[in-house]
UniProtKB/TrEMBL annotation:
One cellular component (GO) term of this entry: cell outer membrane
Originating organism: Brumimicrobium glaciale
Highest rank taxon of the organism: Bacteria
Domain TonB-dependent receptor plug: 113-219
Protein name: TonB-dependent receptor
Gene3D superfamilies in the record: TonB-dependent receptor, beta-barrel domain, TonB-dependent receptor, plug domain
A Pfam family of this chain: Plug
Residues of the TonB-dependent receptor-like beta-barrel domain: 398-773
PROSITE patterns: TONB_DEPENDENT_REC_2, TONB_DEPENDENT_REC_3
GO annotation, biological process: siderophore transmembrane transport
Length: 800
């Protein structure tokens, strides 16, 4: 009897020990953090901690336990094999990945080779090496996203010829787009902290089936640091402190984050503070980009001041702070609950391109900038892993967000300063389900509800007397709502062919009340009550383990929002946009075909071609107000315009990538993007699309040896001649260079950059580089701010 009890105890201890494994690098023998452990027959996904450890209790007895991490060859084991390996798994580095894990395609973790969309992914290691100052810069260094800038405190992504409110932003799975996301350039992405990112993904093409309105050109999905639990009785503590300096704008950045985890509770705290001086542009380039003066107020008079350094772009300085707090609780293996708080605030900052505008020989504006941009989010996430009739996994996300932004302008030697402030409170609730009916069939479905309350105010203040008075607001007081349901099925028809098909119905409502105090509108309110049906069909065919063919056909929509229906805004000199309550949704129809091929461990090629047709497009067209085609606005007779469903547009292009393993730690990679777009004008003629950027790309030569990473890269953009600019862009001499005929155009450019990272101690890493080595003076297409000149960057990182 005692013998049986003793054997039982030993068996129990052995099972207990068998539940925890360690994953290490095959070459360095160091533990691998964030390795993902899953199974073909389970929706559960486990992640290793900083010691490379993870408890695999959910997979005991299975014969298809898979270990994956970007940059490593995936490995599959039977549970008995793991036991025979003493619960230690070795992963070998892989130059080329065909099966990395992505989450943006269906909101769930999926293998990229099963996804018909093109997805670009940046890991925390990529972000650390590239050292982006803002989240906009983070997207830019990917080589797949083009970023426009009108001021240093901003960045407006362009993807496949679409931008602004035709792209969707998500943060930890929560929709960030609001009812005042406009068709003009957007700066909201800078509210996100690149130093608090675990990864970032870009999902290309129309994606409204899963994500609803606005996902026409693509989805940018950001995942922030996730609290990690301890696997034993000792608290798991991990943290990072960073200090960074950049010479081109005298950047001073500090960051600190810490994770403390117990068996059932875990917290993450993250704090970042940035301070940027005026940005210095390069010395070699078009003189048209120079503005060697700025305006100062001296003794109640605006004075034009000549700059000692003509390369400084004044005003462009600003500062920013980001806070994040997460608390995670998992009472058992079936429930995982997390609360997250995010807060971001910038200082006021100047919109540099507006300070280029002249009225005769004097600047048009003495002030033109944005007030503090604030973003706050409270989010509650509840995940349940429970195989039942309805689902295997359920995810509930409830979020409350608040956005504050303002515009401040004052004309040269005018005492009246106008401030218009917008405040948006957004509530959202998402419930998503995943159900595996068999090893070959996965069903994803869910429901989403979003409501936005918009409050807009206007004030005019005399800066000499301090007396203020109400002024016209930018938007009506409004409420925008959206309710959507979707269903997406993934079916593995054969071992080589996987097909996905989905449908979504979204119903949207808008109620706006107009204030006719300052403008005599022929209406007092606007109401929308309409719906949109979208869908998609995609297929992935794997010829073998090294060749994958992707096809996707999908539709997408963008419902009119408050910015479309209710905005009063001087779109350009001599024209004013007025509200138009008679709008309906615009629709996109997208087809893309892609192929990925790996040749041994030497070469990887990736090629995707796409075509998107946009119908019922919302565009500015001539309009009338009370029978008049022009009105007095801001002291000038201005032509009346309004957004209307009056055009078609199409975009087509190619995205290409190549990676070459040069052996001995050297890898050569390149990404190239070519897009062309046309949109219909009011006279029936065609114009180039404003948001279809010239061809662009990045080429990198990297070297890795143990704890050293080096990279030399070149980023570049093609020329856009005057005739190929959008008609609406051709007259903007304040942001474009002039050719030999005095016509506007966007010159081609390149930069050469050196990046380096070295871990010189177990707890300390140094990262830095020299950017724009040849000191080029350049502007990304459609930008009003030049890029940084020669820039020295240095970061010191302490890990504990």
């Amino acid at each position: 009897m005692r013998f049986k009890i003793l054997m039982g105890m030993l068996f129990s201890v052995s099972i207990s020990m068998a539940q925890q494994i360690t994953v290490i690098d095959k070459t360095s023998k160091e533990p691998i953090e964030f390795a993902q452990v899953g199974s073909k027959g389970s929706t559960t996904l486990l992640i290793t901690n900083s010691q490379g450890q993870v408890d695999i209790t959910p997979f005991i007895g299975l014969n298809d336990i898979i270990f994956r991490l970007y940059g490593y060859e995936p490995r599959e084991f039977d549970y008995t094999e793991i036991e025979n390996n003493n619960f230690k798994i070795e992963l070998a580095s892989s130059v080329f990945m065909m099966n990395e894990v992505v989450i943006s395609a269906n909101k769930w973790s999926q293998i990229s080779s099963d996804v018909p969309y093109k997805v670009s992914r940046l890991t925390a290691k990529d972000i650390a090496l590239q050292n982006p100052q803002t989240a906009a810069d983070l997207l830019s260094v990917s080589g797949d996203v083009f970023v426009q800038k009108s001021q240093q405190g901003g960045g407006s992504p362009m993807i496949r010829g679409f931008s602004t409110n035709r792209l969707l932003y998500t943060i930890d799975g929560v929709r960030m787009n609001t009812a005042i996301f406009r068709g003009g350039n957007l700066q909201n992405v800078i509210s996100l902290d690149p130093l608090a990112m675990e990864s970032a993904e870009v999902l290309f093409g129309s994606s409204s089936t899963i994500y609803g309105s606005d996902a026409i050109g693509g989805v940018m999905s950001f995942q922030t640091l996730k609290p990690t639990f301890s696997l034993n009785d000792k608290p798991y503590v991990k943290g990072k402190a960073l200090m960074r300096y950049s010479s081109a704008n005298n950047e001073n950045t500090g960051h600190f984050d810490i994770n403390v985890g117990w068996k059932k509770w875990a917290i993450v705290t993250s704090v970042s503070a940035n301070k940027f001086d005026h940005l210095r542009q390069g010395s070699n380039g078009p003189d048209d980009y120079l503005k060697p003066f700025h305006v100062q107020r001296i003794d109640s008079v605006d004075v034009v001041i000549a700059q000692e350094d003509e390369l400084l772009q004044v005003p462009s300085a600003y500062s920013q702070m980001n806070l994040m707090q997460k608390v995670r609780y998992a009472p058992n293996e079936k429930w995982d609950i997390e609360y997250a708080f995010h807060y971001s605030e910038t200082s006021s900052y100047g919109r540099y391109d507006r300070h280029h505008e002249m009225k005769g020989i004097a600047p048009k504006y003495a002030e033109w900038g944005y007030g503090p941009q604030k973003w706050m989010m409270n989010q509650l996430s509840i995940n349940n892993y429970s195989k039942n009739v309805m689902y295997d996994q359920m995810s509930i996300k409830i979020a409350h967000q608040n956005f504050v932004e303002s515009r401040i302008d004052r004309k040269f030697n005018n005492n009246n300063r106008r401030t218009r402030e917008e405040n948006v409170t957004a509530y959202s609730a998402n419930v998503d389900f995943s159900k595996r009916f068999s090893a070959k069939n996965n069903l994803f479905y869910g429901v989403e509800y979003v409501i936005n309350d918009v409050t807009s105010t206007g004030i005019v203040e005399n800066i000499n007397t301090g007396i203020s008075a109400p002024a016209a607001a930018r938007y009506p007081q409004s409420q925008w709502q959206s309710l959507g349901v979707y269903l997406n099925d993934e079916h593995k028809i054969t071992d080589k062919l996987t097909v996905q098909a989905g449908l979504r119905y979204t119903h949207y409502l808008l109620d706006a009340k107009f204030d006719s105090t300052f403008y005599s509108f022929p209406f007092q309110e606007a109401n929308l009550n309409n719906g949109a049906l979208t869908g998609g069909l995609g297929a992935v065919y794997s010829f073998d383990a090294k060749t994958v063919l992707r096809f996707n056909a999908s539709t997408a929509f963008r419902s009119p929002n408050v910015d479309d229906i209710g905005k009063v805004f001087d779109s350009e000199p001599g024209a004013v946009v007025i509200p138009n309550p008679e709008l309906s949704a615009e629709y996109a129809y997208n087809v893309d075909l892609g192929v990925t091929r790996v040749f041994g461990n030497v070469l990887k090629l990736d090629l995707t071609g796409y075509y998107t047709l946009l119908e019922n497009a919302l565009v500015r067209r001539d309009f009338q107000l009370n029978g008049m085609d022009s009105i007095m606005y801001d002291g000038s007779l201005s032509k009346v315009e309004a957004l209307q469903n009056a055009a078609k547009a199409n975009v087509y292009g190619v995205q290409a990538g190549v990676d070459i393993n040069l052996t001995n730690g050297f890898i050569l990679s390149s990404k190239f993007n070519y897009q062309m777009g046309e949109e219909e004008m009011d006279d029936g003629s065609l114009s180039a699309s404003r948001h279809a950027a010239p061809w662009f790309g990045v080429t990198r030569l990297s070297y890795t040896y143990r704890k050293l990473r080096l990279e030399v890269n070149a980023q570049y953009q093609g020329e856009r001649v005057h005739e190929d600019l959008a008609v609406t862009e051709q007259g903007k001499s304040d942001i474009y260079a002039l050719d030999e005929n005095g016509n506007t155009y966007s010159p081609s450019w390149y930069t050469v950059n050196l990046k380096a990272m070295y871990q010189f101690h177990d707890n300390f890493t140094m990262s830095g580089g020299l950017e724009n080595i040849t000191d080029q003076r350049y502007r990304t297409y459609s930008s009003g701010l030049s890029g940084a000149g020669r820039n020295f960057v240095l970061s010191l990182i302490a890990n504990f």
